[in-house]
Design goal:
Length: about 325
């Protein structure tokens, strides 16, 4: 199988361009924690655009009122708000709505924590800006929620996708390709599970920086290979995929930590999240090869391979500097 670098020019540029869009669809986060049957601790994280707060607001049922003032502060790229809500009769059976969500490209992850330690997870989106609080949650609802979150996380994880794309550009032969994708999958599944279960802990900022470096490394390996100098990624891509895959798993854990897992269905939620991360990854690989089948017939100059590779490398270098400077 020849290198697909040149034929994937359009696809790569589209992924790089989507990075700007991805910043606009950062999810919000709403946590409602039950203190007693009528009292709730509400935490709302609103995505920011620079110094501007997005016009998103929590709308609780009419019988609810706030106890005290709303505390607000800015944290990283978000505005945080926290308050105590008193809701006579409780929230079960009532709707919680995010006003203004219908006019954005953003999702909000809702998390309702009950007194018994169980949780309800809901994904709010512009077309469905509210959810109904329930007193329990079925395994089907848990599976459906974490299935969607897993697929969406990998498809919006531009850095993870660029790493996979770079590997596809340097791997030759179906056996090596299958071994490489399998190694990456096994590696990040191991660390995702270990970190989520609390067996291993890694600070998120260095992990994100090393993930960016992993993309830069493979991009440099592609350049060396095209210049006649085969590196370890060309000779043993499965080894590179497994090694860096362990770190990418910690990146997935960082996102999952923000979402949280329901205590009453922890293994099920983790399983479906991980399986659907893999499903999203395979979907991306399928799109890449579908694009290759169409674009390969288009005549391109020999030097065209440089454009996607240097584009990936430039973006990875930018991320590396940005993430290290944020330590």
């Amino acid at each position: 199988m020849r290198s697909i670098a040149s034929a994937l020019l359009a696809l790569t540029l589209a992924i790089l361009a989507s990075q700007a869009v991805a910043h606009e669809v950062r999810p919000g986060y709403l946590r409602i924690q039950e203190i007693d049957t009528e009292t709730y601790d509400v935490l709302f994280r609103v995505p920011a655009r620079g110094e501007l707060r997005m016009a998103l607001y929590v709308s609780l049922p009419e019988q609810c009122r706030n106890r005290g003032e709303i505390r607000a502060w800015q944290q990283n790229a978000a505005f945080m708000e926290r308050w105590i809500a008193i809701c006579p009769g409780g929230l079960v059976g009532h709707d919680v709505t995010i006003d203004g969500l219908a006019y954005t490209l953003t999702d909000v992850l809702g998390r309702y924590e009950r007194l018994d330690g169980t949780t309800q997870i809901a994904r709010l989106k512009p077309s469905e800006p509210s959810f109904t609080v329930s007193d329990s949650e079925s395994w089907q609802e848990v599976a459906a929620t974490y299935t969607t979150l897993g697929v969406e996380h990998i498809l919006l994880g531009i850095d993870h996708l660029l790493f996979v794309l770079a590997l596809l550009m340097i791997v030759s032969g179906w056996r090596k390709l299958v071994a490489t994708v399998t190694a990456f999958t096994v590696a990040h599944s191991i660390t995702l599970a270990a970190a989520t279960l609390g067996w291993v802990n890694m600070p998120q900022a260095p992990v994100e920086a090393i993930i960016a470096l992993s993309i830069l490394f493979v991009a440099a390996e592609i350049v060396h290979w095209r210049q006649g100098k085969e590196g370890v990624t060309r000779r043993k891509p499965w080894l590179v995929a497994f090694t860096f895959g362990l770190l990418h798993g910690f990146g997935f854990d960082g996102a999952l930590s923000e979402i949280g897992l329901p205590e009453h269905a922890f293994p099920l939620a983790l399983l479906f999240f991980n399986l659907c991360v893999e499903a999203g990854q395979l979907l991306f690989i399928g799109v890449v090869f579908a694009a290759w089948a169409v674009i390969r017939k288009v005549p391109m100059p020999e030097w065209a391979w440089r454009i996607p590779v240097y584009g990936i490398g430039t973006m990875a270098a930018f991320w590396t500097i940005e993430r290290i400077s944020g330590f």
